[in-house]
Amino acid sequence: MTIAVTGATGQLGRQVVGKLKQAGVVPVALARDPSKAADLGVETRLADYDRPETLTPALAGVDTLLLISSSEVGKRAAQHAAVIDAAVAAGVGHIVYTSILNAPDNPISLAAEHRATEAALAASGLTTTILRNGWYSENYAASLPAAVANGAVIGSAGEGLISGAAREDFADAAVAVLTGSGHEGKVYELAGDAAFRLSDLAAEASLQTGKDIGYVDMPAQDYAAVLEKIGLDGGLAAAIAGWDVDAAGGALYSSDRTLSTLIGRPTTPLPQVVKAALAA
Questions:
Q1: d(C-alpha 59, C-alpha 45), whole Å
Q2: Per-residue pLDDT band at 133 (split at 50, 70, 90)
Q3: 120 and 247 co-located in one domain
Q4: Which of 62, 89, 191, 208 lies 20 to 30 Å (CA to CA) from residue 280?
């Protein structure tokens, strides 16, 4: 059976490829720039979401495709649809897709493109497995070095609980599905075992560094202005602040424990994620 991974040079894709190899499965890496995949040590094929003519040839002979959602917010529904059409044309039998937690009802702006992709998959006639990934804990932890330097974690998530898990946890779940059996037609809600608040993130950073680091909650427009000031595009800054507001309302919380069940271990605890972020 041939397994292919889209976005193989991305942070999640690289982990999945490496873990598949460790499991004795050598996948095909699909990448917009194959030269960036040279270090993966597997066959790499050109697959550019924005050049549909590259997609069907890239999927030739592929039995199962892990479709890792594109990083280009606003373009993803069309990009994913192009991959799905190519998969049908190439005779791919099974697509595993990384969606978002509670996709049908999640108010976060990111969810709309995931809903569109899930609908396209349902209409494709292909066998599918949907991995509704929760928030990567690293999405927040990556800002910790700056937070330590400035003495505060900032955001607009209030006391909202975030059921985050490490990127590695989600990679392990994808590998479990790709190499296991009985996952066809399933939809999995994947969330970390222990939810945290941004104040908890700040407290853990304080504990590990010995410095006084608090959490400063801001109105969304103020948080977006700070993000824009440090170099983010205005639209992205506003979107990130908006995601925090949704998190404050519970959009990133789930009590589901399917993720730890799938991977056969507890999800990565927050202190471990913080330690890795501070060492980066």
A1: 9
A2: very high
A3: no
A4: 191
